[in-house]
């Protein structure tokens, strides 16, 4: 087959174009730090990248859920701690009031303090997190207890459990229901009824005003029952908090591992790319030099 000058020029241009294409690909890899620009560059890498990115996005969302759930649980624990302090103080006052050694002035002062403890319990029953009432079940936009009457302002079903998804098929309950906390029975809170804790405070206040020491002595066990119930719920909240801490630690580890896998799948080895780019630049320069020698001769050069 006769090799014409046009064929040689066309081959030279084609080879130079291929060299430029390889150089362009390496330059893009170096600039972006990624192995591929479009899925067609490497379908296997692209498919694996989509899967890993989805996994990382899911882990990130679970981390946000854990953080939100942890904040809710922390606020609940703080409110329970304060409620426990109020009940503990009420029990101390009840013990002092039941021994019959208080003067009339002391009883009046104690009654005033009990009234303030009652108000504090009402305030704590309407504790909020990010504008949501934490003891109101699903009706987080409404307070649990009416601040004027001290009665339940809304019905709160015992099944109104708020769960956060913190993993695949892994949920955790973050809320404490008002009926379970303030009545100690786990039954639904009935709108218009008075929580047992508030009833105990009301009775304590009335017994102090009537100097009914026998009734106050009986009331000590009721207040202690309220305190024991709060302690039980605090222990449960503590267990949930520990579980959230462990879950967060696992998610952080998963995020690191999956991000590393994603990087290994997508990111280029900069040193390798620089080396390959240098080689391609040398090949490109060599092809230009060879092309110049092919194009340069003409028929006039051979007629001298």
SSE arrangement:
Blueprint: H1 5-32, H2 43-98, H3 104-125, E1 128-129, E2 132-133, E3 163-167, E4 170-173, H4 178-182, H5 196-210, H6 213-266, H7 270-295
Antiparallel strand pairs: 1-2, 3-4
Question: Your description of this structure?
Answer:
The chain has a domain at 53-261: f41 fragment of flagellin, N-terminal domain, CATH 1.20.1330.10. 68% of the residues lie in helices and 4% in strands. It has seven helices and four strands. The strands form two sheets. The chain has a two-stranded antiparallel ribbon. A two-stranded antiparallel ribbon has the order 3-4. Helix 3 runs antiparallel to helix 5 (196-210). The chain is rod-shaped and about 125 Å long. The protein starts with a helix and ends in a 9-residue tail after the last helix. The mean pLDDT is 87.
Q: What's the Cα radius of gyration?
A: 38 Å
Q: Class of the domain at 53-261, according to the CATH hierarchy?
A: Mainly Alpha
Name the helix and strand elements from N-terminus to C-terminus, one letter apiece. HHHEEEEHHHH
According to CATH, the homologous superfamily of the domain at 53-261 is f41 fragment of flagellin, N-terminal domain
Q: Specify the structural class.
A: mainly alpha
Low-confidence stretches: none
Order of strands, widest sheet? 1-2
Gap between N and C termini, in Å?
A: 28 Å
| Number of helical elements | 7
Question: How would you classify the quaternary structure?
Answer: single chain
